[in-house]
Amino acid sequence: MSAGQARETGEIFGPRMTLFADVLSVGVCTALVSLPVVTIPAALSTACAVLRGAREDQPATAGQYLAMLRRRLRAGDLAAGTLSLAGALLLWADLALARAGLPGAPLFAIVAAAVGAYAAVVGLRACGRPESLTDWRAAVGGAARDSVRDVGGSGLVLLAVMAAVLCAWMMLPLAFLAPGPLALALTAVDVRMQHRPGGATALPE
Q1: What b/e readout covers 106-145, taking b as 16+ CB neighbours within 10 angstroms?
Q2: How far apart are CA 71 and CA 94, in angstroms?
């Protein structure tokens, strides 16, 4: 911990509590920006980038989040959101057909759910990668490789999503806070992958 992060004598809240508060504020911003749905990838990617900057003593605040979001919103972000929405609707339609009692429906439902879960993991891991700020294609390609090489990390991503969904289901207002911890988990999984032997090379600080 750097000297700037050291807890002063008599200080009630240390740097970890401050970071936790920042994560929640970033989560609220992410939830609000995600309301149009097609902006979800850009919103989550920006949250991950802001929280990654906390490792370099950069501010992880709502103001930093909004400033970064204004600089990076582009057609590619909306295209990524549109493709994600189309994929989710396609999965929903496939599962609806399976529930309608088509021949081989149980096996079809299992395969569709597995493909959907893999696509979700790749998409979420792509949001956690630094490349997603400028190049979604590179981010998705790297995330697809990481999801296979790092099965444990992919499992952690699924657990993080399940925890976020469970929190939102138990208490609806938590849905506006859950994106923050989810973005923190995605960032941590990517940083963990970079520091593994044979993992991606970390970006220079």
Answers
A1: eeebeebeeebeebbbbbbbbbbbbbbbeebeebbebbbe
A2: 37
Q: Which one is predicted more confidently, 201 or 133?
A: 133
pLDDT (0 to 100) of residue 1: 41
Predicted pLDDT at 183: 94
The 8 Å CB, 24+ separation contacts for 195-201 are: 196/150, 198/149, 199/149, 199/150, 200/142, 200/146
Helices (H), ranges, 54-150: 62-72, 75-99, 105-127, 136-149
Amino acid at the residue 34 = S
pLDDT value at position 194?
Answer: 75
- Token pair recorded at residue 45: 């990617």
Radius of gyration, alpha carbons of the chain: 18
* pLDDT of 201: 42
